[in-house]
Amino acid sequence: MKTLNDYMAMSYRMEVLEDKDEGGFVVSYPDLPGCITCGETVETAVANALDAKKVWIEAALEDGIPIHEPDKLEDYSGQFKLRIPRSLHRSLAEHSKREGISMNQYCVYLLSRNDAVYPK
């Protein structure tokens, strides 16, 4: 059975979002449901998050709640196959050609731009 120190040493993904309504920043760990905290600055919020992570894991261990280990990037190949309409394929090919980059690079750019606009 893993200990508190084992879990604390794992690299859990941390999400930091600006709280535009209240001010400051909100931090959560997607792999630790309900583990959330905040702070007036990013630095304070991150420091608070490390404390929140410890308290969350301690409580889960005490109560026998399963603790999921963080996802590993090695679990993802970075590739997937996508079928699209020919008209969209043409449009993507034309845009990428105008930008002077590969269609693959252009699609990665579009996906990353959209992901930044719509955070989880």
Report on the architecture of this protein.
The protein contains four helices and three strands; from the N terminus they run αβββααα. It is mainly alpha-helical and 120 residues long. Strands 1-2-3 form a three-stranded antiparallel sheet, with helices on one face. Strand 2 and strand 3 form a beta hairpin. The longest helix has 22 residues.
List keywords for this structure.
single chain; 120 residues; mainly alpha; Double Stranded RNA Binding Domain; Arc Repressor Mutant; 4 helices; Ribbon_hlx_hlx; Arc_rbn_hlx_hlx; TTHA1013/TTHA0281-like
DSSP strand count: 3
Categorize the overall geometry: elongated
Percentage of residues in helical conformation = 40-55%
DSSP strand content: 5-15%
What is the C-alpha radius of gyration, as a whole number of Å?
A: 20 Å
Tell me the CATH architecture of the largest domain: 2-Layer Sandwich
How many distinct folded domains? Answer: 2
Structural class: mainly alpha
- What's the CATH class of the largest domain, please? Alpha Beta
**H and E order:** HEEEHHH
The average pLDDT score comes to 90
Largest sheet: 3 strands, antiparallel
CATH topology-level fold name of the largest domain: Double Stranded RNA Binding Domain
Residue ranges: pLDDT <50 for 5 or more in a row? none
Pfam family, one: HicB_lk_antitox
GO biological process, one term: regulation of DNA-templated transcription
InterPro entries: Arc_rbn_hlx_hlx, HicB-like, Ribbon_hlx_hlx, TA_system_antitoxin, TTHA1013/TTHA0281-like
Topology:
Layout: H1 4-8, E1 15-18, E2 25-28, E3 36-39, H2 42-63, H3 86-99, H4 103-117
Antiparallel strand pairs: 1-2, 2-3
